[in-house]
Specification:
It contains 10 helices and 8 strands. With about 325 residues, the protein is an alpha/beta fold. The chain has 2 domains: about 5-220, Spore Coat Polysaccharide Biosynthesis Protein SpsA, Chain A (Alpha-Beta Complex); about 220-290. The two termini are about 20 Å apart.
Amino acid sequence: MPRISVIIPVLNEAENIPLLFGRLQGIANESACEFEYVFIDDGSTDASFSLLKAAAVQDPRFKVVRFSRNFGSHAACSAGLRYAKGDACVFISADLQDPPELILRLIAEWEKGFDVVIGVREWGPQERRTFQKVYYRLVRAFALRNMPSGGTDVFLIDRKVARVVVAIGEKNTSIFGLILWSGYDQQVITYRKAERVRGVSKWSLAKKVKLFVDTFISFSYFPLRTMSVLGIATAFAGFCYALIIIAARLFFEQAIEGWSSLMVVLLLVSGIQMVMLGVLGEYLWRNFDEARNRPSYIVRESVGADEQDPGTATTQ
């Protein structure tokens, strides 16, 4: 009987947790697999941890890990892999927007031999998805060409893929990007994302921007290549402008005057230089953060969960 580890990051979802428990129980009753549920409390300030702890005391299938503060959903997913014991690991959110019943479809594809099964969202014509469209289109074009165009928040990976991701151990990255980058056999299923019934989304604009920057810096050299091209283009334009000034003075005895035009050029070039320094700073800061070797998260408390030895990366 295969064992499935369901990894669920939680951040202030006390209103949804009781409903989530009931739906997870229904999934376990319908499946022939053995389940364990690894909840990662990512610094909740409501009653989420109390509810999870009570469930873990009553049911050994529930395992709870509590962070000392909010470290982000990707750090929570990475922690879940270290505590999971299953033959496959499923990632799903606690807000019930991604139907937990989708787990059964993911398992069915995994049993066919796929190492990675991705649930891709179908978007209705009236749904706003400006950020998602831009993000996934740019990622597919310049970073991860196998990124699903609709994006995902729910997916399944085999144990061997989990070992690889844990062994990589990168910070400030996208865990889903690492899974796609690993190159294992993938299968895609589609689903409709439900409306949030209770609570509010914790996915702020700042977190979206950080994910955007982390993904590009972790999996693409496009920002650096753009800096090189922009620098060459600016230098060429400046050289051409200098030739125009010299020619006007030598052959037409005219001096190109104008304090305003000079300041425009100066501000434009200075702005480009500052953007370049900012991009370099993002790369350097992430290298520095990796070199400091600080942990991606700090566990404050755990109930019924023991951290596993990630083992060595393997392609078997």
